[in-house]
Structure formats: C-alpha cells, structure tokens
Design brief:
alpha/beta, oxidoreductase activity, acting on the CH-OH group of donors, NAD or NADP as acceptor, L-threonate dehydrogenase, 4 domains, eight-stranded mixed beta sheet, NAD binding, carbohydrate metabolism, Rossmann fold, 6PGD_dom2, six-stranded parallel beta sheet, binds (2R,3S)-2,3,4-trihydroxybutanoic acid, N-(1-d-carboxylethyl)-l-norvaline Dehydrogenase, domain 2, 28 strands, binds nicotinamide-adenine-dinucleotide, 883 residues
C-alpha cells in the first residue's frame, strides 16, 4: 500500500459499481466508510473492509473526499443539505464527487448552492461506467468535470478508483452530457439493429447469419453485437423499451431547449414509443422480438429458429475445391478497386486493369499492373473478371456497353461483381448471362471493410452464386479477404446481406455525425468525447472509422458521400417493395441526400456532419488541447516510491541476451557512455563484438537520412549479418532495439518490418518515446512536446510537419494506425499507462505485459515515462518479461 495515500473517503449510497470503486480505494491505502440502507450492498461493502455509517452526515465526517451517489435530483436536498445530510459532518476542504448523471443544470445549481450557502465549494461530477471496448473490457472508467481547483483535489481519488479517467476541466456537468451523447447513439443503434434484422428476414436471410457476418463487417456496433443475440434468443423483455423511451425523451428535451435538431434520435424515440404501445400493460412475457414483429410485421422469432448453415464453412469447402486462376481482368480502379487489384498483383496474380479515369491507369502501371484501354481489352483471355465500379449503370455499361466485357470474355470465364448494387440487379444480370450462349458465370461478391483493408487483402466478402461459379473464383475471393462467407440462395443473396450491412453502416455514420454535433453544442471537447465513446456502448465500426475525419475536418474521399445516397437508396427501394417500413434508415438517407444537395457528394461520407454544422453553426472539428505543464504534472498520481535501478542491474547480470541497439542517427549514441558504438557492421566486426560478450553495443546506422527503401534494405542487411555472426559464436543470444526520434520521426514501421522479416516475428513491439530532458511527455496515450510551460500535442508541432516523416496523430495508438496505413489498428495497441505504472508499480506492469495476447504485430506503446525512475521501472519489467 502506498503510505502517502492515507486518508478517509466516504460514500453516501452505494450501488454495485461503487463497490468496485471502494475496493480500489482500499487497495490504494485509503480508509473507506459508507452510508447505505440496502443490506446486501452494505454486507458486501463490509466484507471488502469498509466501515458502516448510520447517516450521510456520519459518512462525511473527517473525510478527504465524499462520493455521493444520487439517481434523481430530488434526493439532493435530503442527502446533502438535510438534518442528517452529508454537509453536516464534512470538513471544509473536502471534495464532493457527485456520482450521478442528473442533468447538467442540476449539478450546476448544486455547485452554486454549495458556493453561496456554505463554505464548502469543491465539487466535481463523475459518470462512472464500465469500458465496453476490447481494451478496457469491463474495467471501470470515469468521466469527470469541474473547476480546475476542484479537479486538482479530486484527481488522486478519481485515479485511484478507475482504470481509465477522462477529465473535462471547466464546468461541472460534462459527465451527464457525455452520458446523453452515448445514450443517443445507443438508442439510434438499437432501432437500426432492429430494422436491419427485420429487413434481412424479409429478404430471406437467416438472422443468425446476418448477425455473424455483420459483427465482422463495417455495419457492426456495440449495440448490434451485444443486443442482437438477446433479441434473437427472446431474452430481452419489453420493459427495456420503456427505459429507453424515457432516457431518449430527456435528451430530446435538452436538445429542444438548445434549439438543436436530432432527427435520427427523434425517429428512434418514436419507434421505441411505437414498440411500447404494442404491449398491453400487464403482459410481462412480451419480448422485444415479439414487439418488433408486431411493429414491422416480420417473423423474427421463426426466422431465428429456422435451420441454418455455416457460411464460413461453406467458403472453406469451396476454397479447397477452387480451380487455378492465372489471368485476372479488373475494371474500376477507384478507392477500393485500386487497392484490391494491387493486392492481387502482390499475391502473384497477373492483373489487367481498366478504369475510365486515365491517371489511375498510370498509377496502376507503376504498381506493376498491365494497363488496358477498354473493358473488352481487360477481359481478353482472362479466367476471372472483377468489376468494382460505383453503381449499377456503370456496371451495365462495362459489361454490355461499347467495347464491353461480355463480347471479349472467353467462353466459360467468370465475372465477380463486387460493386454494391441491389440484389435484384445481380440476379437479373445472372439471368442475362445465362441467356447469352458463352457460358459466362457470375459471382455476386460485395465487400465490406473500407479502403485500407481492400489494399491489405483483409476485406469481409459475402459471396453467392452457383457452386461452379464459386469454385472458379474461390482463390481470388480468398486472396482478397480475411473473412469470406458464402451465402446460399444464388446471385442476389450476397447483395442482400450487403444491403443490410449498408443500412447499419449508413445509419452509424449519420448517428456519429448527429452525436458529435450535439456534443459540440453541449460544449464538450469533441476529441475527448470521441475517445470516451469509443470505449462505451455508443461505439460502432463506422464511429471509430469516420469520426476521426470529422475531427480533422478532412473530407478526402475514402468512400464518397454519394455512395450512401446510392446504398441507402437501395435500402429504401427494397423496403417499399418488401413492405417493411424502415424509418431510421430512411431518415439517414435523407441526411446523405441533404449533404449531396449541398454539393458535398464527392467528398468523404463523414462530410454528412456538415449538414448539422451548417444548420446549427456548431463546429465538430477539434484539436487536442495544449496543456499547462505544471498543472498536469501535479495532478498525476504520486510516483512509485522506489527506483528499481538496482533490480535492473541484478536482472541484467543474469541476463545472457546482448542488447544490440540500431541507432538511426547520432543523437542516440551521444547520450550513452561506456558502451561501444560500431559504425560498420561486417560479419567479422560483429563476431568480434559478440566475442567480447558485452551487455550492450550500438550500431550507428544513420538510416534516418535515407529513403525508406534504402533504410529497410540496410536494416535487413545488418540483421542478416547479426544473425550470421551470432550463429558463429558459441552461446550468443541477442535482442535488437531500434533507437529513433522522440518526436516520432523515422522509418516506422519500415525498419521494424525489415528487422522482423529477417529475425522472425516478435511477441510484441514496444514503442517508448522517452526523452525527459527534451521535454517529451506521454499522458493518456497522447505524446506531448514541452514548449516552456506548455505541453503541445506532438501532432501539432513543427516536428509533425516534417517533409519525410510527417504525421497527424498525437495519440500514440492512432499514430501507429496512421503510420502502418491501418495494418495495425489503434484498437490493437495496448498502452502501459501512467496510472498503471504509478499505482501498480513494476508488478502490475509485468502482469500486463505477461497477459498480452500472443499475437504477432501487437504494438505496445509505453505511455508512462515521466521521470528517469519511471523509465527504470518500465525497463525493469521489460527485462524481467524478456527473460
Ligand atoms: N469505398 C469504400 O469504402 C467501399 C467499401 C465497400 C464497398 N464499396 C463499394 O465498392 C464500389 C466502388 O467504390 P469506390 O469507393 O472504389 O468508388 P470509386 O468511385 O472510388 O471507384 C469507382 C471507379 O470506377 C471507375 N469507373 C466508373 N465508370 C467506369 C467505366 N464505365 N469504366 C471503367 N471504370 C469506370 C471510376 O473512374 C472509379 O475509378 C461501390 O459500389 C461502393 O459502394 C465501397
Ligand atoms: O461496408 C463497408 O465497407 C462500407 O459500408 C462501404 O460499403 C461504404 O463506405
């Protein structure tokens, strides 16, 4: 226990999550006392080691901090100001942490009353929740706000209680605002999930198949992933609806008072009211599925219980029997097609490409492709032709237009249509091809996952067609995808699943825009709001992918806004032909249409946020704030008391691995002493070094001054020599460290990739941009550069504008995603936080490292380095871990 953390913390009222807070405080060395009338809770609390109090007044007596749980504003009078209220016993300088999400205006009134009536004026609010992301996985997360002086007082207690702390300095009330934005998203996503499942059932796709595929595609959301199984199993009771109706109603009232339109939330609210109205008051058995069956007239339950098959297994079976493919034609080398076609080139297929836009052809030629002048030319002698143009009219024209593909394709060839088109269009196309006498086969193979995954061959593909057609294209589909699903039902079935995915994806982009714009109107930092939501139930694949574009105000089209005018247009056409009313999808469609009408159709689809910005005057774009260095450093948890340098030296004595540091410029070698530096790396000189059995030696590569190709080649060369030298000296084991720049400029990930390509995959990559003397700090994953008394996010400094190594992200996890072009998403990067290091010390860091998933290319950013002692602590655990 940390002895400098002594102090008493009181709780007025407990709930189950408060027990976790109390347990964390007790572990950090605080004494904890509580007033609670519900016996089971107080029994658990006593078991933890807490002390029971007879009244709120007693719970507040002698405490340094008082955590007051209030579920309704009416309780404030009694619990805080009443005869036996908490204020009576509270010391003057104690901090009140209001664990509640009552409306911001109530919290502000409470603060005013405390300031006016009493001398006690330290209040912060705290929204306590469980992290829903893979990263936080149910751990406690707190969003808190208040005046700077109150926050400074509260911070040690808040940090002690949670794994992730978000602090909004300024006014109280941010916690409840964030909660509103999160609930807005959850409400919209719930209705969208219900509409998606209903549409899927109407077009004949098994709901569990929809669920399994879309939870691995861009239509996924936390709500879809977590609520749909309960819906399909009949586990969600109708009461769930009334809770939502009430919460969403409150948010709409707040928005109304701010004259702020929330069209998606308004329609979701109406839908949930409609659902509630379908249940008679005393029917406790009605499930959400049954209610929705009545609302939309779709047999969800029967469909969910119908016999099903495994589309991934079908894909594996087809892949085993697939025929060889030599030549591929590729028409439509746009945002998606270019990446897919060049990935096929890298996978050793011969690819002939055609696009109506000539500059693309030049790029394709430079990437090693064969360039053609018409669809017919790109179809000559190919086994498979892939079409990735934008829409049905373009697909029609490349297949049947002037110099079209059909006339030139060899008899028996296969066409893969990967554009997003309506199911009806593909099934009619198949019929037309059958009627032609060339025995051309068609595979309906829409894709999901976006531009980055297209270029990496890790798309989700939902394919359908005859077995013969699927077998003749299996190898190509497998090369383009990480998840390949075969949908039964022939051409049109794949596009049916894609249509359902698009309903969700489109709604999620629009809901992300609505949520962020509303957040901006509520006055919350949009960057921080984004961060909190990505760890909460309101998150979605599209929220995480598209909101960063809104925050950067960068509408370079990865997927054009007009694509959703088209895709939600398909949804709205299908819903009227299947007679299933899809309200939320239709409103989202109208929002994209509004964006297109404003002239933003060719920009990125995240530009739909401008519809809200233009209407209401809010600005979603947001920079990370510049911080006041002294204030931030003072507010962090206290340092781990011990400097484990002696432990490191001891561990190092017993460690047989030689540390070989490849330094990309001379500033690294200038900061070490008593360590040899090699400026050349012949096998002979490396053997000579290894024979000395040093603990460490440097090789000055100077690779920062080279092009990335040359730097990679150099690192490979050195690693090969190291390998040869090490194998010729007996009992030599070594580890490679890449030393680079603390302002993040250098050949990342190229040098790491080069080292791995020679030395083999590593269990993890550790990124640790430590340079205390140079004023580099990493706080909550954001890397800062000190500029006198300010901490400036690295992405906003001159360093980030470097012509060769420029970058935008200051958050190290996002920086990894940016630098790896999406190959390593931010969500796969684990951080070692200052909280973990300072509160848990070496043991906690060691445990975190040992529990990392053993997946190659997981990158771990150290975000903990504030003092030299801390870098020692971290090194200590690393050395132990490496052993
Ligand atoms: N962008 C995404 O993230 C994404 C993801 C999944 C699916 N999709 C779907 O994939 C398809 C392609 O999307 P995109 O974003 O690559 O679109 P895009 O507009 O960037 O690319 C389409 C390409 O087709 C070319 N083209 C149009 N007519 C042509 C013709 N007659 N002959 C030859 N080339 C022609 C265009 O010049 C363009 O390069 C769309 O149907 C889209 O809905 C897109
Ligand atoms: O599933 C996806 O990748 C997306 O929805 C695209 O089709 C459109 O951006």
């Amino acid at each position: 226990m940390a002895s400098d953390h002594q102090g008493v913390v009181g709780f007025v009222n407990l709930d189950y999550i408060s027990l976790d807070l109390a347990a964390s405080l007790l572990r950090s060395g605080y004494a904890v006392q509580a007033f609670e009338i519900y016996d089971p809770l107080i029994t658990e609390f006593l078991k933890l080691g807490g002390i029971r109090c007879a009244s709120p007044m007693e719970a507040g007596r002698g405490v340094a901090a008082l955590i007051v749980l209030i579920s309704h504003a009416d309780q404030i009078n009694d619990v805080i100001f009443g005869n036996e209220g908490a204020l009576k016993g509270l010391p003057k300088d104690a901090i009140i942490i209001l664990h509640s999400t009552i409306l911001p205006s109530y919290v502000q009134n409470l603060e005013k009353r405390l300031t006016d009536d009493c001398e006690t004026a330290y209040l912060v609010d705290a929204y306590v929740s469980r992290g829903m992301s893979e990263l936080l996985d149910g751990k406690v997360m707190i969003t808190s706000s208040g005046r700077s002086d109150a926050i400074a007082r509260a911070r040690p207690f808040l940090s002690a209680m949670c794994e992730k702390l978000y602090v909004f300095e300024g006014k109280v009330g941010a916690g409840s605002k964030i909660k509103m934005v999160n609930e807005l998203l959850e409400g919209i996503h719930l209705v969208a999930s219900l509409e998606a499942i209903s549409l899927g059932v109407k077009v004949g796709i098994h709901p569990w198949i929809i669920y399994n595929i879309i939870s691995n595609a861009a239509g996924n959301s936390w709500v879809f992933k977590n609520h749909v199984p309960n819906l399909l199993q009949g586990n969600t009771k109708h009461h769930f609806l009334s809770t939502f109706v009430q919460k969403l109603g409150t948010i709409l009232d707040v928005a109304k008072s701010l004259t702020f339109p929330l069209p998606l939330l308004a329609i979701a609210h109406q839908q949930l009211i409609l659902g509630s109205s379908h249940v008679s008051g005393d029917d406790d058995t009605a499930t959400l599925a049954k209610v929705w069956e009545k609302v939309l007239g779709v047999g969800i339950t029967d469909a969910a219980n119908a016999e099903m098959y495994n589309p991934e297994q079908l894909a594996n079976q087809i892949a085993c029997k697939s025929s060889t493919v030599n030549r591929i034609g590729f028409i439509g080398l746009g945002a998606m097609g270019f990446g897919m076609a060049t990935h096929l080139l890298r996978s050793n297929f011969c690819v002939l490409g055609y696009d109506a836009y000539k500059p693309t052809l030049t790029r394709f030629f430079e990437a090693g492709g064969l360039v053609c002048n018409s669809p017919a030319e790109a179809s000559k002698d190919v086994d498979v032709l892939i079409i990735m143009v934008t829409n049905e009219a373009q697909a029609e024209s490349v297949i049947y237009g002037d110099l079209g593909a059909v006339s030139a394709l060899p008899s028996g060839a296969s066409i893969i249509l990967s554009s997003t088109v309506s199911p009806g269009f593909v099934s009619q196309l198949e019929q037309r091809l059958i009627n032609d006498s060339k025995n051309l086969k068609l595979v309906d193979a829409p894709v999901s996952g976006g531009v980055k995954r297209a270029a990496m061959g890790t798309l989700t593909i939902m394919a359908s067609g005859t077995d013969e057609a699927l077998k003749s294209t299996g190898l190509v589909l497998a090369a383009l995808s990480e998840k390949l699903y075969i949908i039964r039902g022939g051409c049109g079935a794949g596009s049916g699943v894609k249509m359902v995915n698009q309903l969700l994806a489109g709604v999620h982009i629009a809901s992300g825009a609505e949520a962020m714009a509303f957040g901006a109107r509520l006055g919350i930092s949009t960057r921080m709001l984004f961060d909190v939501i990505t760890n909460s139930g309101g998150t979605s694949w599209m929220f995480e992918n598209r909101v960063p574009h809104m925050l950067d105000g960068d509408y370079t089209p990865y997927s054009a806004l007009d694509i959703f005018v088209k895709d939600l247009g398909i949804v709205s056409r299908e819903c009227s032909s299947h007679k299933v009313p899809l309200h939320i999808a239709t409103v989202a469609h109208q929002l994209f249409l509004s964006g297109s009408a404003a002239g933003w159709g060719r920009q990125d689809d995240s530009g739909v946020v401008k519809v809200y910005e233009t209407l209401t005057g809010v600005i979603v774009e947001g920079k990370l704030p510049v911080l006041k260095k002294e204030v931030v450093l003072k507010s962090l948890p206290s340092e781990w008391p011990l400097d484990p340098i002696d432990d490191i030296q001891r561990l190092n004595q017993n460690n047989s691995k030689i540390l070989v540091v490849l330094d990309d410029d001379p500033t690294g070698t200038q900061t070490v002493h008593d360590i040899e530096v090699l400026t050349e790396w012949t096998i002979e000189s490396l053997i000579a070094q290894f024979r000395k059995i040093p603990k460490c030696f440097f090789i000055l590569t100077n690779s920062r001054s080279l092009s990335s190709e040359k730097a990679s080649a150099l690192i490979k060369d050195i690693c090969r020599n190291l390998h040869t030298a090490a194998t010729s000296v007996e009992d030599i084991d070594y580890t490679v460290v890449l030393r680079g720049d603390s302002t993040l400029r250098g050949h990342f990930p190229e040098e790491a990739d080069a080292a791995v390509s020679v030395l083999g995959e590593m269990d993890a990559w550790i990124i640790c941009p430590f340079f205390l003397q140079g004023g580099r700090y990493t706080i909550d994953d954001v890397h800062y550069v000190a500029d006198s008394d300010k901490l400036v996010p690295a992405g906003d400094t001159e360093f980030a504008k470097d012509a060769a190594f420029g970058y935008k992200a200051s958050n190290l996890r996002e920086w990894v995603e940016e630098k790896t072009g999406g190959r390593i998403p931010a969500s796969k990067v684990t951080s070692i936080s200052i909280q973990l290091l300072r509160k848990g010390g070496p043991d906690a860091v060691f445990e975190r490292l040992c529990n990392l998933p053993k997946v190659h290319n997981i990158v771990n950013t150290s975000t903990c380095t504030h003092t030299t002692a801390e870098i020692h602590t971290y090194t200590n655990t690393l050395v132990a871990w490496l052993k």
